[in-house]
Amino acid sequence: MILAALTFACSSDDQTEPVPTLEPLSPAEVIARSSDALSGLTSFRFALSHDRGNTVLTNGIQVQRVTGTAVAPGSYTLNADTLVSGFFINTEVVVIDQDSYMTHPITHRWELLGPDASPFGTFDPTLLVANILDQVDAPAHAPPGSGKDGVYVIDGNLPPAALSSLTGGVDESAPPLAVRVTVDGATFLPVEARITGRATETESADLVRTVRLFEFDAGITVEPPI
User: Fold this and answer.
1) pLDDT digit string, tens, across residues 75-117
2) What domains does the chain contain, in order, with CATH numbers?
3) For residue 93, which of 216, 196, 222 has the smallest C-alpha distance?
4) Strands, E, within 85-176: which ranges?
5) What's the pLDDT score for residue 2?
6) What is the pLDDT of residue 203?
7) DSSP letter at 217?
8) Nearest Cα to 126, choosing from 35, 54, 55?
9) Integer Cα distance of 188 and 36 in angstroms
10) pLDDT score for 5
């Protein structure tokens, strides 16, 4: 019995994935490598959530939660829980190059929208994450213990303009937002960005939103829904 237990323990240890040893890189080097890794992706899945408040688009729609996919070079899908004039509405969106499809809020049937008609027309997840990485100011390593093993955690500031592809517009006079970016230590892919602060006039100053990325290059495709 003792031999069997030892054998099981050894086999279990063999199946444990090793934690990558992090290179001693500066915060700016981590962000630069992460930006390069993002630009080489063909697809990923993402989720946007909020700890406090909601993202408020410039058209007044409050976004509570969004999940979706992104496929290079310009296609993505969204499944968004929103508040419109106090009413909860779930909306699905498919964008393929210049074509935008959205489900009707009442019938839930797909509709092909005209140019600039989609309220989520600027909600480009790939551009959002790219802008966050490109515009991080004063990057610094987060305090020890801020993240799990095998990742880089970088703190910094963001100008409100970095979120324009999310909100559709920003308040240029708003103070810089605080951002914490988590980067996979093996692939340098960005896996999370946690952003505190408002980007539009109607958002709360203590708003905390988190963007998570996963399932990179998983063979995702985006097709017209109708």
Assistant:
1) 999 999 999 988 999 999 999 988 999 999 889 999 999 767 8
2) 22-214 (2.50.20.20)
3) 222
4) 87-96, 99-103, 110-113, 137-141, 151-158
5) 44
6) 94
7) T
8) 35
9) 9
10) 45
